[in-house]
Amino acid sequence: MFHHVDNEELIAYSKRSVDGKNVTLMVVNLSPHSVHSGWVHLDLQALGVEADKPFQVVDLLTEAYYTWKGPRNYVQLDPHVLPAHIFLVRRNQR
C-alpha cells in the first residue's frame, strides 16, 4: 500500500503479512543528489496501528528506534548517507 508524502521526491509504501504480525514501511528518497524531507501521512488501519496510541518503528538499515504517534510523521533522507528507511512497525513499544 502506498502512503501519501507531502514531498514528491519521497515515496512511502508498506507491506503487511497475511496474519498482520509483520509490517514493514519503506520511505525512499527518489533524488540521488539532494536531501529531501517531508511529512508521511500513514494509513494506520492498513498498518494495524491504533490512532490514539504511540507505536515504534525500527529502521532495519541503521537499527535506530523511533516512537511515532498518529498518522502524520516527519522524515528526512540524505541520499549520500541514508537514501531510504526500511522500518519494522511495532504496535507495542519495547
Continuous helix count: 1
As for the number of domains, it is 1
H/E series: EEEEHEEEE
CATH class designation: Mainly Beta
- Estimated share of beta-strand residues: over 45%
List unreliable stretches of 5+ residues: none
Count of DSSP strands? 8
Largest sheet: 8 strands, antiparallel
The whole-angstrom Rg is: 13 Å
Strand order of the largest sheet: 6-5-8-3-2-1-4-7
* Strand-pairing-aware structural class: mainly beta
How does this model look, in words?
The chain is mainly beta. It has a single domain, classed as Sandwich (Immunoglobulin-like). 4% of the residues lie in helices and 49% in strands. The protein has an eight-stranded antiparallel β-sheet with strand order 6-5-8-3-2-1-4-7, with no helix packed on it. The longest helix has 4 residues. The mean pLDDT is 95.
Salient structural properties:
globular, 4% helix, 8 strands, 94 residues, mainly beta, 1 helix, Immunoglobulin-like, 8-stranded antiparallel beta sheet
Q: Short summary of the structure?
A:
With 94 residues, the chain is mainly beta. The chain has one helix and eight strands, in the order ββββαββββ. A hairpin with a 5-residue loop joins strand 5 (55-59) and strand 6 (65-68).
